[in-house]
Write a structure and sequence with these properties.
The complex is a heterodimer of chains A (288) and B (335). Chain A has 288 residues and is mostly helical. Chain A is built from twelve helices and two strands, in the order ααααββαααααααα. The C terminus of chain A is likely disordered. Classes of the chains: A mainly alpha (288), B mainly alpha (335).
Chain lengths: 288, 335
Amino acid sequence: MGILIYGTINSVALALMALGFALVYGISRLPNFGHGALYVVTGFITWSFFRGLGVNYLLSILLSMIIIGIVGALIYQFILIRVRGMATSEIIASYAIGVAILEGLRWGGFKGMTYTLPAFFEGSIDISGIPVDFHRIIVVGAGAGVVVFLWLFTHHTRIGLALRGMAQDERAALMLGIDSDFMAVVAMGLGSALAGLAAVLLLPLGNIVVESGYNVLILAIAVCIVGGLGSWMGAVIAAFLIGFAQILTVVYLGSHFQMVVALLAIILTLILRPSGLFGRQKELEERV
Amino acid sequence: MEERRKERLDRGIKIRTDKIYALMSWRELSYLTLPRLVLIVGVLILPFVVPSMYWQRVISIVCIYALLALSFDFLAHFVGLVSLGGAFYIGIGGYLAAILNTSAGLPPIITIPIATLIGAAICTLLLLPCLPLRGVYFAIVTLMYPLLAARIIEALDILGGTDGIMGVESFSNNWTEQYFILFMTLMFLFGLRRLVNMDIGLVFRAVKDNDQAVRASGINITLYKAIAVFIASGVGCLAGACLVHIYMWSGISLFALDFSILPIAATVIGGAGTLVGPLLGCFILVPISELLREFGTLRIVFYSLILVAFIVFRSEGIMVYGQRKYHQFERWVKI
């Protein structure tokens, strides 16, 4: 039962980390390797607002999500858009930006155990004998909420539909008057805001440390690759696969193996089935 | 106002062409050999001109990175496999050399060649399943290999775990270390330049440009990719083995990001696809990064930003620019 509960929580956490990455890749075909950096930066921005300036917690969360969304959009608009379509350059450039941000934070003194965010609600509840704190339940609820919100957003709003149109066929979308560059910027902003949302939801569970940026990136890539790059439902299902696999290995092997599972999942998926479990791309495109 | 444009003409002096060519004079001969001589002599006298032991050590490190950058440049721009996992080669070569040295008691002169060959074989075997992947997918999977290797060593607590393997023998003296690595760097630089101009290099470039066409010609592309990976990872493993003997220590940090990012930055700055460029890039970047050492991780920020700037603004790199200026006449002509 404990495995089931904590597996679910872990899976939702993974899905939250990965959704931003999946969204950006799905729409503008940009493998955003700076995702982890955006995640960590949001944590520090929220911390600065809340602890440094003493702003209300909810307000500082909202503000930092808006800020990170704008930052992501600006990064795309001024830097990454120039290498659009050149996949390898996109990876190297976005990864270098991410590394620059993370190592810059480390240099700026944001390291150690002193940076924490409080849980939304203290206390815990017993679910069939296993104590689960409220915050983790909120994480699960928020994760489900985000998935539903994204579904509604992409199916029932103009911008959402335009984004989906672009994801399906960029040329056709261009012909119908959708500004694909602008949409890519919007997608990047939205993806960054999602990374920020994941950060403010998940960081109260531990410390804000720079290293987690790299881990979040790896986990996000693992989820997206197993689920199939560009497939959002695939990402959610893959998050559950990896989430439970991680919890099982932690229970039966030891906590050191948590990242090994994710990395092995990436490598094995790419070797055996590069388009992922639910990828819609043709196999020939990525395999010779 | 009359309009003008810049006209560029090739100087007709080349070392290798597909047509008949003849060197007519000492002037032409020196035109061709001078840049190469300057490079070789410059590199070889470098250990004498640097001020201190510390900077001699820096030269060795420069060469380690240069070897890695060479292997990246070769694999990415002549075979079309963008490998972001330079740290993996370093780690495999380094750990092999350390194990051979500490457990079997072999001297560096034996461990380095063995580590190079066996390391290259191991890397090729491990990367073999990924070879059919292209572009982004190969880049992602190779980026994950060193991370996975480090985590596995950490999790299983094998090979010294997080402490690493201590007490690896160093080179017999400072000068052997310097000249061995410098000589290896030059040898692989000119060796690879030669290789990409031979028939096999032609196949490599064809695989890069259009692999389906190569396959349609009845050539096994996986075999050729495997050969290329073997060569490139061998160069990387050599660098790793030397590094371990310099530091007298082998640990998880051999799989660190530095070894994956800096060679790429050096390649982009020096000029991609020239093979000399990466060497030049390392001679620029590594000393700067040493000077910035007291600023801690700021140096990683610094070369990440340089990398972004060069990639995004599509700069051609120092070597490509230099070669164009050296090999071409430029003049303004009226339109």
